[in-house]
Input
Amino acid sequence: MRIDLHIHTRPRSCSAIDPGELAQQARRVGLDGLCLTEHNCLWDPREINELAGEGGLCIFQGNEITTNQGDVLVFGYEEKVTGVLTIQDLRKKVEAVGGLLIAAHPFRGFLLFGITQLQMNVDQASRRPIFQYVDGVEIFNCKVTEEENEMALRVSERLGLLGLAGSDAHRLEEVGRCVTILERTVHTERELIEELRARRFTAEFVRK
Ligand SMILES: [Zn+2]
Ligand SMILES: [Zn+2]
Output
């Protein structure tokens, strides 16, 4: 089951994606499912059902929450969050309801040097506080550089965190660029979380 875990639509996020065009585009690029991860904003579950329509696409609710340590995607936590939380607070809240936390684009804008220096800095990068409080890391995000994704991959391996793919799509053509492929079919956010935790997935960056 091919899922894009990280998608923004307008007007809930500053995205150019019209929700009405999303399902069709998702099917066109071969997705079986996607997660709506607006910034500190949740969808009404009934509206999500309408959005999915008849095409057999699964649409899940996520949320991208701003913390003092960077952006975090959460699944299975459906409380409205306003303002900036500390990463510790968010962890506590999400853990209490059995949800999942993923560090989104953890090195976006961090790496301004070449690959050699990058290798030397995996240890240092792994010590960023955010990684102590998340279950996984986005290792493929189509809005960051290859080096930034590469660093996220190395850190996820070093720390044994889940390594996931989500496009962070803000434009229709970005939908489905970064795909998490589940071994089993899921129908609910709970099942999705279970499969991710059990590591029954692979991550793919779809090259054009
Ligand atoms: Zn973000
Ligand atoms: Zn995002």
